Amino acid sequence: MYRNKRGFTLIELMVAISIVAILAVIGYTLLTTAQANARDSRRKQDIDAIATALELQFDGPKGTYPAVAVSMFADGKQPVDPVTNLAYTVTPGTAGAVSYVVCADLEGTTGNFTDAGTTPSPTNAGGFYCRKSQQK
Question: Mind listing the pLDDT tens digit for each residue in 6-15?
C-alpha cells in the first residue's frame, strides 16, 4: 500500500536547524570581529589627528607643545574613544611640555606598542597604538 508522505521527518528538521545554527555562529563571529577592527581603525585615526594637531601647534622658538584643546580640531570636538566616550590621554597633558605621547588601547588588531606604561585591560589582545612627539 502506498502512503502519501507530507512534511519533513524529525531528522531532516534537526539537520536543517543545525546548519542554520552553525551559519549563525559563523556570521556573528565575523560581525563582532569586523566591529572591533572598525573601532580600532577609528582609534588610530583619532590618535593621528591629535598628534597632527599638536605638531601643527608646536612652538619652535620655545621648543614646546600646547595642551590639547577643542579649538585644535576642525569640528570643535576633541576625539574620544568610540566605546568609553572618554578623551584620549596625552602625556604630559600640560602646556609647555617639550614632548608628548598619546595612546589608544586597541581591541583586536595589533598595535605599534605592547605596553603604554599602564596595565593593559584583561580584554586587550592587540596592544596599544601610540604616537609621540616628532620635534627634537
Answer: 778 899 999 9
Q: Which residue type does 96 have?
A: G
Question: What is the pTM assigned to this prediction?
Answer: 0.75
Minimal CA–CA distance to 69: which of 48, 47, 96, 50?
50
Radius of gyration of the chain (CA): 25
- Main-chain phi, psi angles of 12, to 5 degrees: -65, -40
Question: Residue 65: phi, psi to the nearest 5?
Answer: -110, 150
Instruction: Give how far Cα 94 sits from Cα of 28, 68, 91, Å.
Output: 43, 8, 8
Residues contacting residue 17 through CB under 8 Å, at least 6 positions apart: none
Of 128, 26, 39, the C-alpha closest to 85 is 39
Dihedrals phi, psi of 49, to nearest 5 degrees: -65, -40
Cell of 48: 593621528
Residues 50 and 69: their CA atoms lie apart, in Å, by 10
Other CB atoms within a 10 A radius of the CB of residue 89 amount to 14
